[in-house]
Amino acid sequence: MAWILLTLAGLLEVIWAFSMKLSQGFTRLGPSLITLVTMAASFALLSISMKTLPLGTAYTIWTGIGAVGAFVVGILFLHEPASAMRITAAVLIVSGIVLMKLSS
């Protein structure tokens, strides 16, 4: 169950990062509220998963999901560049996440 909660926490991190970008520095109410709600939910789920998962594993996977997820959302919805070096970096992050999961 902790892994499911951690995955949900990571996905919520992607949502709050994207909505923070859309909030334009917290000057737009809707995206600002989405940011705050999903941020709180993400932190709550992360903290619950840390009851049974090691700190380093949980935090690394949470930030990894958020980083790669934000990278993909940026490319798909914000038309950010998808250079070979950026894609390689994302692949390395995912590889690290997989290794961290396998080691736990």
Outline the fold blueprint:
Blueprint: H1 2-22, H2 29-49, H3 55-78, H4 84-103
Summary, kept brief:
With 104 residues, this protein is mainly α.
Structural notes for this entry:
InterPro entries: EmrE-like, Small_drug/metabolite_transptr, Small_multidrug_res. It is a multi-pass membrane protein. This is Guanidinium exporter. Keywords: Cell membrane, Membrane, Transmembrane, Transmembrane helix, Transport. It is found in: Cell membrane. Helix 1 packs antiparallel against helix 2 (29-49). The protein is 83% helix and 0% strand. By secondary structure, the protein is mainly alpha-helical. The chain has one domain. The chain is flat, with a radius of gyration of 14 Å. The protein has four helices and no strands. The two termini are 14 Å apart.
